[in-house]
Design goal:
Layout (H helix, E strand, L loop, with lengths): L2 E11 L7 E11 L4 E13 L8 H6 L1 H4 L5 H4 L3 E10 L2 E2 L1 E9 L7 H8 L4 E16 L2 E6 L5 E7 H11 L10 H13 L5 H13 L4 H10 L1
Antiparallel strand pairs: 1-2, 2-6, 3-4, 3-5, 3-7, 7-8, 7-9
Amino acid sequence: MPDLKFQIIGVESTTRGLAPMLGFKLAINNSPAGESIYAVLLNAQIQFSCPQRSYSGSEKEKLVELFGPPEMWGQSLRNRLWAQANTTVCAFREKTGAVLQVPCTFDFNIAATKYIYALEQGKVPLLFLFSGSVFYEADGELKVEPISWDQECIYPMPVRVWRELMDRHYPGTAWITLQRDVFDRLYEFKRERGLLNWEQTVESLIETANSQPTLRKVKAEEASA
């Protein structure tokens, strides 16, 4: 009966894809070495292992939306699901390799984008949880077994890999989605003020908001009074 072991050994961005995608290089080893594996239908659940890294002060500020203020992180900083990936591994003996393709998005309504974008440098700790089926030969017969539920590995993905991927597909830009009624109001604001583009529209709103006292500023003034 196969005893498969999985390990992520690298990652690279897909340069020819029409959409941003990362390819995780997977090493697969089986024992006993002489056993014939006909195929593996492999699934991987990929999680951000958020508690496994430290965060700078500016990173913590950006992550408040996801985890709350840092003083609450003892309860709120938990693993978060990023993606599901799957692949079919062809016949092999003892060891082989494969690639798990993971589509990425720059949509800031998606928690995964908010999390990685908040990280300024270092590594993104990823937890891969494997499942699926393995087809193999035993006693002259084709047999199938589920992959053991405890097959998993950690891979520290460099933040720069994701950033370079986004820079290539969305150079110098970012994008968000709005509910239709909110967009209509924003569009009306843009037309009424004769603004030329969306950048000017958003900058006008920010300047107006900055002219008003913020809750943080009000609290600071109250504390110093």
